[in-house]
Amino acid sequence: MRQVNIKIEEELLDRIDTLANKSGKNRSQYMIDKALEEDIVQDIPDIENNIESESTIKILTDQVDYLKEQLKIKDEQLERSDILLKESLDLKNNLLLTHKQHWWQRIFRSKS
């Protein structure tokens, strides 16, 4: 049985070598090109079926709408955080200014 397998493999390799030589390529390049051609030919009908499928289009549309809504929510959250950050910085600056004013007043009172 093993000898039969080896003979079939040798015949197959010889045939592949012949086809590769006819196309002006080595065995590896010929096999890679054929595999790529088969993948492309098999993928084309799958892609066409997926694109034409109304349910797929509806699902994708729903997903896009959902993502748009999520982006809108994130934008609103960012706006609120920006407002809170600005208010916090304003408060900090006001407190710092008040503290400095009191500090300078104490310095001038102690000199008088």
TrEMBL record:
<dbReference type="InterPro" id="IPR002145">
    <property type="entry name" value="CopG"/>
</dbReference>
<protein>
    <recommendedName>
        <fullName>Ribbon-helix-helix protein CopG domain-containing protein</fullName>
    </recommendedName>
</protein>
<feature type="domain" description="Ribbon-helix-helix protein CopG">
    <location>
        <begin position="3"/>
        <end position="29"/>
    </location>
</feature>
<dbReference type="Pfam" id="PF01402">
    <property type="entry name" value="RHH_1"/>
</dbReference>
<dbReference type="GO" id="GO:0006355">
    <property type="term" value="P:regulation of DNA-templated transcription"/>
</dbReference>
